[in-house]
Amino acid sequence: MNIAIDLLKTPNEVLTTLCSKHGYPLIKVGSHQLCKVCAKENLEQTNKQHQEELQQKLLQYRIHSTGLNQRYLECGFSNYSVSTIEQQQVVGYCQNFTQQLLNGSKSSFILYGTPGTGKTHLGSAIVRNLIYKTKMSARYITSAQIAQTIMSSWSIEDQSEEQWIQFFADFDLLVLDEYGLHDRHSARLELIHKVLYKRYDMMKPTMIISNFTIENLEQDLGVRLWSRLHENQLITVPCYWSDHRMK
């Protein structure tokens, strides 16, 4: 029960007993007795709790709006399994990249290597840290999903390719996973590159996750796009160790 709100209802019985905390006459509200200052404090506490609940709901909404699926919603740096020096170094690179983003860096980041090395886990951790620590927007998505979404707009009257490219370009951070996996058709690959070019033009950092080697990535992205990604000190980090899913 919100005693402060009930206090506004009349009639309330004013007692001769004084509040031991504030020295004001107590007012009987139902089965409760409190003074006007107690009532004010009660109302402020209720409002504070309400605001905290709203903020928590907003935070959860933002987390679920990032595109992370159920498997990666709780992925963080602290629960990433580290058993080698190389893994610890990669976690450090990801943490440093996150801090750079918080400081306004426009650098892009490429995490590449063999399957099962935890690259998506680390990308998810970066997304979650941005959402929890800032009001920045972040989106996790695979390259196949981007291509399919844009291509689907071709047959929808009130949508356009340009609108979706702009949509993906607007996020403060875009984590593009599975680059090179299901985007091999030239038309699909062209759409992915259009998004990357647009983000470059808007000076937005992008994280690319891929099983390609760094040489394959350079060749696949092309000379012009590869050059543009380097403009703001591109960070490239390899992940080559055993597949944790196979243990």
Automatic annotation (TrEMBL):
<feature type="domain" description="IstB-like ATP-binding">
    <location>
        <begin position="106"/>
        <end position="222"/>
    </location>
</feature>
<dbReference type="InterPro" id="IPR002611">
    <property type="entry name" value="IstB_ATP-bd"/>
</dbReference>
<protein>
    <submittedName>
        <fullName>ATP-binding protein</fullName>
    </submittedName>
</protein>
<dbReference type="InterPro" id="IPR027417">
    <property type="entry name" value="P-loop_NTPase"/>
</dbReference>
<dbReference type="Pfam" id="PF01695">
    <property type="entry name" value="IstB_IS21"/>
</dbReference>
<dbReference type="GO" id="GO:0005524">
    <property type="term" value="F:ATP binding"/>
</dbReference>
<keyword id="KW-0547">Nucleotide-binding</keyword>
<keyword id="KW-0067">ATP-binding</keyword>
